[in-house]
Amino acid sequence: MLNTLTLKNTIDQLKRKKISHKELYTDLRRSLEQNSELNAYLTLNEHMEKDVENLLDTPLAGVPIAIKDNFCTKNVRTTASSTVLDHFIPQFESTATRKLKEAGGVFVGKTNLDAWAHGSSTETSQYGRTLNPRNKEHLPGGSSGGSAAAVASDMCTIALGSETAGSIRQPSAWCGTVGLKPTYGRVSRYGVAAMMSSTDSPGPIGKTVEDTAILLNYLAGHDQNDGTSSSKEVPDFTQTIGKSIKGMKIGVVYLDHPGLASIKTLFEPQLKVFETLGAHVEYATALNPSYAIGDYTVLQRSEVSSNLARYDGIRYGNDRSLFGAEAKRRIMLGTFTLSKGYADKYYSLAQKVRTLFIEDYAKLFQKYDVLVSLTSPGFAKKIGASEGSAMFGELEDMLLEASSITGLPGINVPCYRDPATNLYLGMNIIAPMWQEEKVITVGDAFEKNTDWNSWSTHG
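Request: output the structure for the sequence above.
Response:
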């Protein structure tokens, strides 16, 4: 099945004419039919194969890519998994998707997500939940659950997701894929339905570390339409693939956090891989991630209340009565935290705590090249786990929120598979801002010296 090939192998074999686009897309169509019950896609591109052969000489050579449905795609319905946008057809293209098209990517379709990206389960989608391809009794995580599920089930070669606080890395951990969250500002947010404008970060979800590095090459860069995008020079992220980590200093954080005891014993043995490769591994003390839960909640709700105010039924079709329960809760809490007499008490205080996390990481990175932790505090939860739990997402993302609100780059790599359930644990690797190369190098070294990645041929 050619749809199971990695991005790197797919491009190589297409260009060398070892495989054809017709063969690739025939296998992909078969996978889409077989996995339709996963509900990973909300809209399919029925004409994806049209003229795809003409893209052979482009960098991405016409490979099939899944797009999270909060990215505007010109003339293709974009819902953000909310019925408020049920009939919204954008007349423009997001910068991220435009760049992928220009590089020769072909869009399979738009993937399911938690409505407005509010959640870590994909259960808040107003078009039904997505199932985890590794075990259909469990959730894929979120908010980029549809993109992670599409990759894990080989219903695309690679996918585009977005992360506000875990929404790329957490579903990647639950689905056993690789998820790369770039530094905030590395990839343009233009054309992405805004959730928390000060942390929203588009990025790739792929089968291998190298695959995500390849796609980031075509996503990154300054955009005049996004004032928060960086003008920093973009390196070739694939140049760090295969590099030695000998002599690197790796700090291990958060393992003593309450509730991790049962999976800590599965995670700690994986750290020995770094030592065998010549890296120095130490346990480090970081600011308690529990503080990030409340801090992120206040900041995120405040920005949500502002960003969702534009959906008034005039410009986007349906009115605000169609907001789901989660969106309404977040709007109300955000409006409260920004109201007169409370903004200083809550929002301003939260910004000060955010600064404390920035300072804490700056101190840690004076000593360590990267920091590693578990990505999620557990395996994928069962279907229905998020229902009735107002803080489900914040608790599932608690090990990632601090790095997100501080704008750091991070990557999830599979680091354990439970043979009884076929569910995965993920390792989160973070580095200082603008140093994606470090997380790619360390993630790639781990992937190539273990057997946890189900697509890797290196193990």
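The chain has 14 helices and eleven strands.
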